[in-house]
Specification:
This protein is 45% helix and 7% strand. It is mainly alpha-helical. Helix 2 crosses helix 3. The longest helix has 20 residues. The radius of gyration is 15 Å and the shape is globular.
Length: 84
């Protein structure tokens, strides 16, 4: 599934806001790896998806829900994010 189909139809260009950021080279490398992991068309799509995931996780934790990661072997780990 592509990043565009996950987030619904493309919005008009007028809905978007340009955000420029200064990132360390190591962070840019992480974005590039994330783009590959998510099969995202662009870095922007990868960042948008990462923000959606972060918002989902942070919201769940703030609402006193548990966020659980389950590995292929069935091992489960609760996600704890300091400050939430």
């Amino acid at each position: 599934m592509s990043a565009a189909s996950r987030s619904g139809p493309r919005r008009p260009a007028s809905d978007y806001r340009l955000v420029q950021m200064n990132l360390l080279p190591a962070t840019v490398a992480k974005v590039d790896k994330l783009q590959l992991m998510l099969s995202a068309r662009t870095r922007t799509d990868a960042v948008k998806t990462a923000i959606d995931i972060a918002f989902l996780v942070a919201s769940a934790i703030r609402e006193k829900s548990n966020v659980i990661i389950e590995t292929d072997d069935g091992k489960r780990e609760r996600i704890v994010i300091p400050g939430l």
